[in-house]
Design brief:
The protein has about 170 residues and is an all-alpha fold. About 65% of the residues lie in helices and about 0% in strands. Pfam families: DUF3180 (PF11377).
């Protein structure tokens, strides 16, 4: 899998900031509630961040050789997918609530109640934390190249002394 491109995340955040701003303007124009998530969403975001970090640290410890037990490759793949999903979800939440904040700041002096602004700011901060944790844990899941991979060509392994009964895919060079 390819690593998540931070420029793509930035583009998604900008598009959703514009969408959040437009939605907030339209909601205000038609006397509807501001489209911001409730603060209980921070609890859900926190659970996702903690779960992603715990699984990511588990993969990192195995990758760095601090665990003797073999890591389940399916768990490692799930951790990578969870990290990417965390980064994308955080980007969506950050962008949307940044758009809401932009509209709320425009009217800052005219309002006496700023609860929506602080709520959107808290949720945008939670989204930023999700993006950071997702990108960091995604880096945890990268396996460093093996000794022979750096010297050999594109996927072709160098010549090694190995038993003839062992297949190519089963040989790790340990």
């Amino acid at each position: 899998m390819k690593l998540t491109n931070p420029l793509l995340l930035l583009a998604i955040a900008v598009v959703l900031a514009a969408a959040g701003w437009i939605a907030t303007v339209l909601a205000g124009r038609y006397s509807l509630a501001t489209p911001v998530l409730p603060l209980t969403g921070l609890l859900t975001m926190g659970v996702i961040v903690v779960l992603t970090l715990v699984l990511g640290i588990r993969v990192l410890r195995w990758r760095n050789g601090k665990k003797k037990k073999i890591l389940n490759p399916i768990l490692a793949a799930w951790t990578l997918v969870l990290a990417q999903a965390c980064a994308y979800t955080g980007t969506v939440l950050l962008g949307w609530h940044a758009g809401i904040i932009m509209e709320q700041l425009r009217l800052w002096n005219l309002r006496t109640n700023h609860d929506i602004t602080w709520q959107a700011l808290a949720l945008a901060g939670g989204g930023l934390i999700m993006v950071i944790v997702g990108l960091v844990v995604e880096r945890f899941c990268r396996i460093p190249p093996e000794d022979g991979d750096a010297e050999s060509g594109h996927g072709v392994q160098g010549k090694r002394n190995k038993p003839t009964a062992e297949g190519e895919y089963a040989y790790r060079g340990d």
